[in-house]
Amino acid sequence: MTFAPGPIPSRTQYVQDAIKHAILTGKLTPGQPLVETDLAAQFGVSKTPVREALKTLAGSGLVVMSQYKGVTVRTVDAAMAREVYDVRLLLEPEALRRTVALEASLLAAEEALVRAESAPDAADRSLANRDFHRALYLPCGNPLLSRMLDDLRDQAALVSTVAWSANPSWEREAGEHREILRLAAAGDAQAAGAALHDHIASFLARAFPA
């Protein structure tokens, strides 16, 4: 399939977004080679925007650039998953506690939860799941904390994609999401933060048991 390229300034972003979406929905699998010439032909662009897009994706942890192997989709193993989720466990519950304490709007989280539960496929569900978690921490009142969690967002989503492909557990996690949102909407910052911590920790334990 050939894609129609957009205006020149947006071509790199266009390619980057398309590759990221393919990785986070499992269409491009961990370890799969990403060849510049093939991608350029697929997207109807030169190799330059493809190269720049791959550099950005390497910076966000979704692809690996090697002098000998070229560019590949990042492989997820237990060590990588625990590293990413350990930081999430330290930061994300605290961000949610602050969001609740500020009485910030949770409408975006509610909308993401509805989209996830009505998603037609795993790809849309995965994207809605990312939006749900971001909507909980984004209004925390500390832009640096939000940016730190944003920096982990793609890697966390990659871990989830790999884990769900091996052991689908969405129904359980959807119930946990509803409970987290209920506690947050009720204004119970401590309980909401604790529920989110348990949610993240239990997912990691199921997906990558020690």
Can you put this structure into words, describing what you see?
It is a single chain. With 210 residues, the protein is mainly α. It folds into 2 domains: 8-73, Orthogonal Bundle (Arc Repressor Mutant, subunit A); 78-207, GntR ligand-binding domain-like (Four Helix Bundle (Hemerythrin (Met), subunit A)), CATH 1.20.120.530. The chain contains 9 helices and 2 strands. It has helices at residues 11-24, 36-43, 47-59, 78-101, 107-117, 122-137, 143-166, 170-185, 189-207, and strands at residues 63-66, 70-73. Helix 1 crosses helix 3 and helix 8 (170-185) packs antiparallel against helix 9. It starts with 10 loop residues before the first helix and ends with a helix.
In short:
By secondary structure, this protein is mainly α.
Helix proportion range: 55-70%
Shape: globular
Terminal CA distance: 42 Å
Describe the biggest sheet?
Answer: 2 strands, antiparallel
Task: Work out the helix count.
Answer: 9
Integer-rounded radius of gyration: 18 Å
CATH class of the largest domain, anyone? Mainly Alpha
Question: Would you identify the CATH architecture of the largest domain?
Answer: Up-down Bundle
Stretches where pLDDT is under 50 for at least 5 consecutive residues are: none
Count of β-strands: 2
Strand order of the largest sheet: 1-2
* Oligomerization state: single chain
